[in-house]
C-alpha cells in the first residue's frame, strides 16, 4: 500500500511539473492572410477564455504570449471566425476565408476603397455579374436603369450612337447642367466610351459626405467606374459574342387610309366656317376608295416607310493573367448597330489595356490605356426629318425608281396642299457622317514609404477628336412628282451640292497625388488619413468650313468644292486646381467617423472669386458591437448600423467666360457712307458670379438579417442648392443683348430611399429578389418672386413649384351645345366658343377665363423611382428579370403628331378619329379644328398625360454547359437569349415615357426593343 501511494505521488508530481511546463507562457508570432495570400490588417487575435489579445498590423502580423494548451480565436469583419491551437508553434500561418456575407464587400469610394460595413456615407454599389455584362447594351449609361436607389436614367434616343442616357442622382438640383461627375479609374471621362464587359464595378456617391472629396463638380453626385485588372496565375481568355434584332418600342398610329383622311380634312374645313369650300371633292375620295393600284393611289403609312427592323452584333475578346509581380488585362470590342431608320448606324471599336507591375515590395507602377473609335451615320438631321415627317399625307407615294431614275413623290391630287414634305427624300439624299476618336492613357506609381504610409502619383491624358460632315447631293431636294399625272407636283429650288465640315479636339490633362496614412493604435483605435492635390486643364479647339458645287457626288472634301468657301474656328481653355483631405477613425469597428475637406479653384470665375471650400462630416454606429445592446437585439440580426452625414459641395457648370462681356466679330458698320468691319456686343458681363453651393444632410440605416440572406438600406435626405446661376430677363432697352448669369436661385430636393434584397437556396435551386424605391420632392425655393419663366412649351419655373412644372388652364369637359356655351364663363376675347370645344375653369370667379385662371397642371420631374431584380438558377440554368419605372410624373404632349389643331397637309393621329362631333358626343377629345384656331390647343390640362411607367427593362435566360461535356482546355461555355426593353406598361400616348421631358418634344428617334442571343466562352 505504501509502495502504491508512493508511486501515485510520484506520478502526480511528474504531471504537475509537466503541466506547469506546458502552461508556461511564451512569445507567439503569426501572420493572417486571405485566400489570395494578401495580408489582412486589423484582425483581432485573442486567447480563448482569456482577456489576452492582439491586432494584426498593416503586414498582417500579430504578436502575443500564449501557452501550448491555448487556442487562438481569429476574427475579422467579412471573414469566417477561426480557432487555431497553439501547441508547439511559434510562427503561425493563418488563412481566413471570406464569409458568405455582403459585409465583406469592398466599395470604391473617392481615392480609395472601403469595406461596405465601414461606410458612413450614402454609397450604392452596382453589381456587374455575368448577366449584367452580357446584356446587349449599346451604351454603358443605359445599363444603370433600375439598379440603384435615387438614380434616374432617361434614355434620350434609340438612334445608334446617340443612346447616351441622362443620369440624375436624387433629383434635379440646379437649373444648369445637372449631370453627375463621372470618373473612370479615377479620371473624369464619358460612360459612352467604356465597354460594359470591361467594368469591374460602379459606385454611386449620393450624399455630400461620400462625394465631398471631389468638391466642386460633385454637387449632382458622383459615378465611379472601375475597370477590370488582371489576376496572378494562369492566363485566361474570354470571348463574348451576340447577335440581335431591334424594332421600335412604339410608333405613332396615324390615319393612313387616305379617303378617311380626306373626309376628316373636309370636316375640319367647315368646323369654324360652315360656308367654307371643301378642299377634297367627293370624286377624289371615291377614286381612292375604288382604286386597286396603290402606287398611284397610295394609302401610305409613313411609320412603315421611315422605320423598320434594325440589327446589332457585338464581339468582345479579353485576356487576363499575371505572374508574381505583374498582372494584366486586355480587351478588344467591336459593335455594329444598324438602326431602325434607314441610313442610321454606328460601328464602334474599343481597346483597353490595364497593367500593374511590382518593382519591389514597396514600389508599384501601373498603366491604363483605352482607345475608342466610332463611325456614326445619319441623315443630315434626324430631328428635322421626323418633324418634316408630320408635314405630309397618306396620299403621297414615297418614291418610284424606274427607267427614269429615282423620283420622290409629292401630292397625287390637285385637291391636296401643294407644300408637302417627303421625309424619305431627306433620309436618302442628305448625310451627316460623324467620326469620334478617343485616346485615354493613365500612368501611376505607388511607394510604400514606411509601414502604413503610402504615396500615389497619377497622370492622365484624354484626347478626344470629332470630325463631322454635312452634305447633300446636287439637287438633293429635287422636284416632287405627281405620279398619277406623271408631272412635277412641287417645283423646288435646285440646291447645289453643299459640304459643311467641322473638326473639334479636346485635350484633358489630369495630375493628382495622394498621401495615405493608415495606423492602428492598440486593438481598438483605427486611423486613416488622406491628403492630396490635383490639377486639370481642358483645352478645346474647333474648326469649321463649308463649300459648294462639287464635280461629282463622290468627292466630299473641302478641297474638291468650287464655290462659296467659308472658314471659321475658335478655341478655349478651362483649368481647375484642387487640394483635398480625408480623415477616417473608428473605435473597435463600432464608432465610425469621417471628415472631408476640399478646396477648388476654377478659371470660370474672376480672380478673387475663383476658390471655394467644401467640407463634409459623417458618422456611423454599429449597434451589434455594443455589449449592452448585443443581447437585446435578436440573433437573426447580423448587422445593424445607423449613419448620419452633412456636407457642402459646389458647381461651376456654366460656359467659359460667363463673367465677361462677349463680342462677335465680322459685324459691318457704316461710317460716312463707308462700310467698315467691327464687333458688336453679345452678352452683358457680371464679374461677381461665383460658385453654386449645394448642402446635403443624410440619415441612414443598414441592416443584414437571417444569416445575411436579407439586407436592407434606408436613407432620408435633404439637398439644397443655393446661389444657382441663372439668366434673368433684361429690359427691352438693352436690345438683343443676352443677359448675364446671376447667383439668384435656390432649389430643394427632399426624399427617402429604400433598398431590400433576399437571396437563398433550396436544394439545387438558387433564387433572389431585390428592389429599390425612392421618393423625391423637388421645389424651387427662390427664383424671381411671383414671376414665371417659361422654359419649354407649357413648362415653367416658379417659386414653390417643382422645376419644369406645367402651367395652363384647367379643363372641365366639353361644351355639348350652344346653351352650354352661353351658360359658361367667357373664354374668347371675341365671339363665342362652339359645341365640341373644351371648357376651362374660371378659377378667379370673374366670369372670364384668361391667363389669370391658369393653374399648376403637374410636375415633369418624377416623384417616385423604382427598380426590381428577380433571379433564379437551377443546374446551370439562370433566369434574370429587371423591372424599372417611375411614378408621379406628367408630360405635356401636344405636337404635330398629336393635336386637334390640324394644318392642311399634315398627318392626323388615329386617336383623333374619336374627336367630338354631334354624332359622337360621348368622348373626351375636343372637336377637330384648323391649326389657326387655338381655342383647344392653348396650354391646358387636356394635353397633360400621366407619364408613369413600368418597364421590363431586361429579361435573360442562360445555360452554362457542364464542364464534362467539352474539352478540358475550356473553363466555361455559357449560352443565353436576351430581351431588352421587352414590355412597357404606361398610359402615356407619346412614343416613349422614358424619352420625353419638359425640354424635349414627342418627335424623337424611338427607343428600341432588342431580342438577342449570344455565347460566352472562357478558355
From TrEMBL:
Organism for this UniProt entry: Chitinophaga hostae
SUPFAM superfamilies: Carboxypeptidase regulatory domain-like, Porins
Keyword terms: Cell outer membrane, Membrane, Receptor, Signal, TonB box, Transmembrane, Transmembrane beta strand, Transport
Pfam families: CarbopepD_reg_2, Plug, TonB_dep_Rec_b-barrel
UniProt entry tagged with the keyword Kinase: no
Major localisation: membrane
Chain positions covered by the region annotation Disordered: 388-419
Stated family: Belongs to the TonB-dependent receptor family.
Domain TonB-dependent receptor plug: 118-222
Annotated Gene3D superfamilies: Carboxypeptidase-like, regulatory domain, TonB-dependent receptor, beta-barrel domain, TonB-dependent receptor, plug domain
Protein's cellular compartments: Cell outer membrane
The name this protein goes by in its record: TonB-dependent receptor
Record-linked NCBIfam families: OMP_RagA_SusC, SusC_RagA_signa
Signal sequence region: 1-22
Membrane topology of this protein: Multi-pass membrane protein
Domain TonB-dependent receptor-like beta-barrel: 404-981
Amino acid at each position: 500500500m505504501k509502495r502504491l501511494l508512493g508511486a501515485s505521488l510520484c506520478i502526480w508530481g511528474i504531471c504537475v511539473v509537466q503541466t506547469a511546463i506546458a502552461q508556461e507562457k511564451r512569445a507567439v508570432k503569426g501572420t493572417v492572410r486571405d485566400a489570395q495570400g494578401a495580408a489582412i490588417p486589423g484582425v483581432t487575435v485573442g486567447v480563448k477564455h482569456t482577456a489576452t489579445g492582439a491586432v494584426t498590423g498593416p503586414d498582417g502580423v500579430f504578436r502575443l504570449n500564449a501557452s501550448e494548451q491555448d487556442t487562438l480565436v481569429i476574427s475579422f469583419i467579412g471573414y469566417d471566425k477561426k480557432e487555431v491551437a497553439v501547441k508547439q508553434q511559434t510562427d503561425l500561418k493563418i488563412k481566413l476565408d471570406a464569409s458568405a456575407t455582403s459585409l465583406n464587400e469592398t466599395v470604391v469610394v473617392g481615392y480609395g476603397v472601403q469595406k461596405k460595413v465601414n461606410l458612413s456615407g450614402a454609397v450604392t454599389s452596382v453589381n456587374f455579374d455575368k448577366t449584367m455584362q452580357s446584356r446587349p447594351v449599346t451604351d454603358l449609361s443605359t445599363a444603370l436603369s433600375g439598379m440603384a436607389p435615387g438614380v434616374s436614367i432617361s434614355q434620350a434616343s434609340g438612334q445608334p450612337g446617340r443612346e447616351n442616357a441622362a443620369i440624375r442622382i436624387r433629383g434635379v438640383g440646379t437649373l444648369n447642367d445637372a449631370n453627375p461627375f463621372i470618373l473612370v479609374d479615377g479620371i473624369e471621362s464619358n460612360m459612352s466610351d467604356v465597354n460594359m464587359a470591361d467594368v469591374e464595378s460602379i459606385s454611386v456617391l449620393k450624399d455630400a459626405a461620400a462625394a465631398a472629396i471631389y468638391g466642386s463638380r460633385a454637387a449632382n453626385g458622383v459615378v465611379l467606374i472601375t475597370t477590370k485588372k488582371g489576376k496572378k496565375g494562369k492566363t485566361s481568355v474570354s470571348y463574348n459574342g451576340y447577335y440581335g434584332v431591334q424594332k421600335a418600342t412604339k410608333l405613332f398610329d396615324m390615319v393612313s387610309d387616305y379617303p378617311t383622311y380626306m373626309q376628316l380634312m373636309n370636316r375640319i374645313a367647315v368646323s369654324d366656317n360652315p360656308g367654307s369650300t371643301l378642299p377634297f371633292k367627293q370624286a377624289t375620295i371615291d377614286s381612292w376608295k375604288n382604286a386597286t393600284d396603290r402606287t398611284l393611289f397610295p394609302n401610305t403609312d409613313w411609320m412603315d416607310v421611315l422605320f423598320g427592323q434594325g440589327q446589332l452584333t457585338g464581339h468582345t475578346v479579353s485576356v487576363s493573367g499575371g505572374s508574381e509581380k505583374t498582372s494584366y488585362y486586355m480587351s478588344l470590342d467591336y459593335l455594329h448597330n444598324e438602326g431602325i431608320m434607314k441610313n442610321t448606324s454606328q460601328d464602334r471599336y474599343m481597346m483597353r489595356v490595364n497593367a500593374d507591375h511590382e518593382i519591389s515590395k514597396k514600389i508599384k507602377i501601373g498603366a491604363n490605356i483605352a482607345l475608342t473609335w466610332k463611325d456614326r451615320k445619319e441623315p443630315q438631321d434626324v430631328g428635322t426629318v421626323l418633324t418634316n415627317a408630320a408635314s405630309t399625307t397618306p396620299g403621297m407615294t414615297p418614291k418610284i425608281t424606274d427607267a427614269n431614275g429615282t423620283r420622290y413623290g409629292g401630292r397625287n391630287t390637285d385637291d391636296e396642299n401643294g407644300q408637302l414634305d417627303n421625309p424619305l427624300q431627306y433620309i436618302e439624299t442628305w448625310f451627316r457622317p460623324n467620326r469620334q476618336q478617343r485616346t485615354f492613357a493613365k500612368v501611376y506609381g505607388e511607394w510604400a514609404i514606411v509601414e502604413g504610409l503610402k504615396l500615389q502619383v497619377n497622370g492622365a491624358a484624354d484626347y478626344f477628336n470629332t470630325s463631322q460632315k454635312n452634305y447633300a447631293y446636287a439637287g438633293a431636294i429635287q422636284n416632287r412628282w405627281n405620279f398619277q399625272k406623271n408631272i412635277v407636283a412641287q417645283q423646288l429650288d435646285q440646291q447645289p451640292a453643299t459640304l459643311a465640315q467641322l473638326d473639334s479636339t479636346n485635350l484633358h490633362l489630369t495630375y493628382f497625388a495622394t498621401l495615405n496614412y493608415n495606423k492602428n493604435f492598440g486593438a481598438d483605435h483605427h486611423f486613416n488619413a488622406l491628403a492630396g492635390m490635383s490639377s486639370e486643364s481642358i483645352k478645346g479647339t474647333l474648326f469649321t468650313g463649308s463649300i459648294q458645287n462639287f464635280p461629282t457626288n463622290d468627292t466630299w472634301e473641302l478641297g474638291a468644292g468650287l464655290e462659296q468657301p467659308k472658314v471659321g474656328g475658335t478655341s478655349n481653355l478651362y483649368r481647375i486646381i484642387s487640394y483635398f483631405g480625408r480623415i477616417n477613425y473608428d473605435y473597435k469597428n463600432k464608432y465610425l467617423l469621417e471628415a472631408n475637406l476640399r478646396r477648388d479653384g476654377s478659371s470660370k470665375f474672376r480672380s478673387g472669386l475663383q476658390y471655394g471650400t467644401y467640407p463634409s462630416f459623417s458618422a456611423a454606429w454599429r449597434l451589434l458591437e455594443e455589449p449592452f445592446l448585443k443581447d437585446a437585439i435578436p440573433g437573426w440580426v447580423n448587422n445593424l448600423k445607423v449613419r448620419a452625414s452633412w456636407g457642402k459641395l459646389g458647381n461651376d457648370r456654366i460656359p467659359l467666360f460667363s463673367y465677361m462681356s462677349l463680342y462677335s466679330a465680322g459685324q459691318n458698320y457704316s461710317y460716312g457712307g463707308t462700310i467698315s468691319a467691327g464687333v458688336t456686343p453679345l452678352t452683358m458681363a457680371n464679374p461677381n458670379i461665383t460658385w453654386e453651393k449645394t448642402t446635403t444632410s443624410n440619415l441612414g440605416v443598414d441592416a443584414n438579417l437571417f444569416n445575411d440572406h436579407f439586407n436592407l438600406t434606408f436613407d432620408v435626405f435633404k439637398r439644397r442648392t443655393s446661389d444657382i446661376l441663372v439668366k434673368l430677363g433684361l429690359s427691352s432697352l438693352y436690345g438683343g443683348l443676352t443677359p448675364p448669369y446671376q447667383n439668384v436661385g435656390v432649389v430643394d430636393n427632399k426624399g427617402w430611399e429604400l433598398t431590400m434584397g433576399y437571396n437563398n437556396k433550396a436544394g439545387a435551386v438558387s433564387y433572389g429578389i431585390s428592389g429599390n424605391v425612392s421618393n423625391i420632392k423637388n421645389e424651387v425655393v427662390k427664383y424671381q418672386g411671383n414671376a414665371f419663366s417659361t422654359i419649354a412649351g407649357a413648362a415653367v419655373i416658379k417659386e414653390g413649384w417643382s422645376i419644369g412644372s406645367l402651367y395652363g388652364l384647367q379643363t372641365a369637359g366639353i361644351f355639348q351645345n350652344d346653351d352650354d356655351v352661353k351658360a359658361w364663363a367667357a373664354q374668347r376675347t371675341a365671339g363665342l366658343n362652339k359645341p365640341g370645344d373644351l371648357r376651362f375653369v374660371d378659377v378667379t370667379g370673374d366670369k372670364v377665363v384668361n391667363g389669370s385662371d391658369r393653374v399648376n397642371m403637374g410636375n415633369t420631374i418624377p416623384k417616385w423611382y423604382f427598380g426590381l431584380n428577380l433571379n433564379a438558377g437551377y443546374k446551370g440554368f439562370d433566369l434574370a428579370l429587371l423591372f424599372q419605372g417611375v411614378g408621379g410624373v406628367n408630360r405635356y404632349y401636344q405636337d404635330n403628331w398629336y393635336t386637334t389643331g390640324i394644318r392642311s397637309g399634315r398627318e392626323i393621329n388615329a386617336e383623333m378619329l374619336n374627336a367630338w362631333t354631334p354624332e359622337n358626343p360621348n368622348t373626351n377629345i375636343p372637336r377637330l379644328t384648323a391649326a389657326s384656331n387655338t381655342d383647344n390647343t392653348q396650354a391646358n390640362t387636356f394635353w397633360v398625360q400621366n407619364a408613369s411607367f413600368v418597364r421590363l427593362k431586361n429579361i435573360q435566360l442562360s445555360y452554362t454547359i457542364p464542364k464534362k461535356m467539352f474539352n478540358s482546355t475550356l473553363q466555361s461555355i455559357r449560352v443565353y437569349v436576351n430581351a431588352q426593353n421587352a414590355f412597357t406598361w404606361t398610359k402615356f400616348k407619346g412614343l416613349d415615357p422614358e424619352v420625353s421631358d419638359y425640354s424635349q418634344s414627342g418627335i424623337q428617334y424611338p427607343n428600341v426593343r432588342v431580342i438577342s442571343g449570344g455565347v460566352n466562352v472562357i478558355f
